[in-house]
Specification:
Length: about 90
């Protein structure tokens, strides 16, 4: 197994997205996509780490989407709306 920064970041991002999917006050749709995205990113990181030959591509989006998704999920769970006001 070969673990570089790309694989490690993918696995960590996937785990964080999966955990964020269980935050309270998320809609079913948000929870579903957080879990699906987390599993896919985690799986891709492990898949690439297990390869012994070949070239694998990590697009820049794989580093951007998890950060945006985590910020969105935390803001949603905290009750922050698009207008910047707390939901009550």
């Amino acid at each position: 197994m070969h673990w570089s920064a790309y694989e490690v970041f993918s696995v960590i991002s996937g785990i964080i997205l999966i955990v964020a999917g269980f935050l309270p006050r998320l809609s079913g749709r948000d929870r579903f996509w957080a879990l699906v995205g987390g599993v896919l990113i985690l799986g891709y990181g492990i898949y690439v780490a297990n390869q012994t030959s070949g070239t694998y591509y990590f697009p820049a989006i794989i580093f951007i989407v998890p950060v945006i998704a985590i910020v969105y999920l935390i803001a949603t769970a905290a009750g922050v709306t698009k207008g910047g006001r707390n939901r009550q």
